[in-house]
Specification:
Layout: E1 10-12, E2 16-19, E3 22-25, E4 29-31, H1 35-47, E5 53-58, H2 61-69, E6 74-76, H3 84-87, H4 93-105, E7 111-114, E8 123-128, H5 131-146
Parallel strand pairs: 6-7
Antiparallel strand pairs: 1-4, 2-3, 5-8, 7-8
Helix pairs in contact: 1-4, 2-5
């Protein structure tokens, strides 16, 4: 059975934060914990039922370049193109961004990013069939950035 509502999508309660060299979950994983990311995953599943996971990280230009260098499908969605009726309706932005990214790429991309807008922080979203694969994509890109010569 496929997820059909945010209560069917598991997420980390709160955020994952850096604690020295480690990443630490602020809270436990539970179903319905993130309505924003759940809406993104559900929208992606409508286009490709294999996409069952997403993660959201702070925007970093080098990281975006690394994803591209690794051959991932990366789509920029300009938040300033977001229609007012979407921007002002709670929970509509991420599904809109997913639809816009699919329109631009012709499929669900591996990575969707934006550089923010008034009241919206810039973000990178990584999509994959599983949470483990989403994290692996991110770690692969992060290692590329950390290599001598970086992602430039």
């Amino acid at each position: 059975m496929y997820a059909t509502s945010r209560e069917h999508v598991a997420a980390v309660t709160g955020r994952i934060v850096r604690a020295g060299p480690r990443l630490v979950a602020v809270g436990p994983v539970r179903f319905g914990a993130s309505s924003h990311m759940a809406r993104l995953v559900l929208a992606a599943m409508r286009h490709d039922p294999r996409i069952r996971a997403a993660l959201n990280v702070r925007y970093n230009e080098e990281l975006v370049r690394a994803f591209r260098r690794l051959g991932y499908t990366v789509v920029y969605v300009p938040r300033e193109e977001e229609p007012v009726e979407v921007a002002t309706r709670e929970g509509a932005s991420l599904p809109w961004a997913l639809e816009e990214a699919v329109r631009r790429a012709g499929r669900v991309p591996d990575v969707i990013y934006d550089t923010g807008a008034h009241g919206r922080e810039p973000m990178i979203r990584v999509l994959a069939p599983t949470a483990v694969l989403a994290v692996e994509k991110l770690l692969q890109a992060a290692r590329t950035v950390a290599e001598p010569g970086g992602a430039g």
